[in-house]
Amino acid sequence: MAVLTAAAVYYESAQTPVAFAAMTGNTARTTYSLTSKPWSSVVITTGVDPYTVGPYGVMTGGEVTAGVASNSVRLAAMTAMMPAVASASATTGVVTVSAVTDDSLTATRGTSAGTAYRISSLTITSAGAAAMVAADGSTAFVATRGAAGGPPSIPLGSIEVAQVKLTTSTAAAVASSEIYQVVGDSLERYDYPVYSTDPIRGQITFSAALPLTHGTSAVAAATAAKLVYARVATPVFAEISRARNWVPAETSNSTNSEQYYDLTLGNYSSSLNQATFEAALTDGVTDALLAKRGINLLFKFVPDKNKVPYQITQGVLGIARSFAVGANPTVSFTVSPLQESVDFAS
Q: What is the CB neighbour count within 10 angstroms for residue 62?
């Protein structure tokens, strides 16, 4: 049993911006985490999102069409989420790629009937430029990346925009039916698979595993998924003096039932409560925390300031002040969250 004699409540008093950094995926390639956490939701710069998650992929444009010259294709202007590219925006992670209409993008054909089935991929490289890569040819198409007759493995740091699937070794114009741009198969988009964000844990979770499409060379096995980056801001916490009675945001369940002639059927519903705490203020008017009302802030509760475990809650701050005669001005604070408070052991 522990008696809370050294507990404390902290609030997000300021933010520390963190530049785009690579997120680390779990073994299943569904959950990606950033070392810097939790993520602030306070807008630091007008017009700039407080945090940006950047899975690599095409955002807008990028239609691939047949070129005029033999074996060539053309690329429409496009934007892509590629935060590590030197020309990408430092705040949005977006890179702009100009159209390629000079027939310089060439698909590779097989040299004989035995290698006629060959797939080339149009990519945007880690330098932000359009380029073609090709796997080896075979007598039929296969699905395995890097294999003869299969799609090439894409260099890590690049994204795939389209595949060109050729079936003859004779130079000729590329047919529109030989160009494939299928999301999740031959086209990497930044918003596929969809994902949910957990700013408290500093994680995102995709609805499906990111496919293995990248490898050390075009003809090597694909061993990696596309890159995922994030730009965030972490909170600077300040202790709230004379605080007490912290209640975290947690989910509670309630039961309802419907009665029938032969039985009673039950059901339940869940609800997320507000976090609450109280504090005695200096004058109840000029205290710094009062200026944060209506802002989506991070709060940190520590059961014992001499130990490691803590709890993080994020939500919109609300206040209810009381000015009793002969007493300190007091405030009952509410924190309206979008998710439960999260416990951290370290």
A: 24
Cα distances (angstroms) measured from residue 74 to each of 102, 104, 159, 191, 280: 7, 8, 17, 24, 67
Residue 263 burial by Cβ neighbours in a 10 Å radius (0-12, 13-18, 19+) = exposed
pLDDT, tens digit, for every residue of 252-271? 999 999 999 999 999 989 99
Question: Cβ of 105: how many Cβ atoms within 10 Å?
Answer: 24
C-beta separation of 277 from 247 below 8 A: yes
Residues of the chain under the 70 pLDDT cut: 1-2
CA distance 271 to 256: 14
Query: Is 150:142 a contact under the CB 8 Å cutoff?
Result: yes
The CA-to-CA distance between both ends of the chain, in Å, stands at 20
Residue type, 51: Y
Closest by Cα among 227, 189, 209 to 58: 189
274 membership: H or E segment, kind and range: none
Q: Which residues have C-beta within 8 Å of that of residue 236, sequence separation ≥ 6?
A: 12, 13, 14, 15, 16
What's the pLDDT score for residue 35?
Answer: 95
Instruction: Give the number of other CB atoms < 10 A from CB of residue 282.
Output: 12
What count of other Cβ atoms lies within 10 Å of the Cβ of residue 169?
16
In this structure, are residues 333 and 279 in contact, taking their beta carbons and an 8 Å threshold?
A: yes
- 91, 231 Cβ separation under 8 angstroms: yes
**Residue 146 near residue 215 (C-beta atoms within 8 A):** yes
State the pTM of this model.
0.91
Cβ–Cβ under 8 Å, residues 228 and 33: no
**Two tokens, residue 1:** 């049993």
Domain ranges of the chain: 16-232, 240-344
Q: Are 297 and 234 in contact (CB under 8 A)?
A: no
Strand-strand pairing, 154-155 and 214-215: parallel
List the structure tokens of 148. Answer: 């003869």
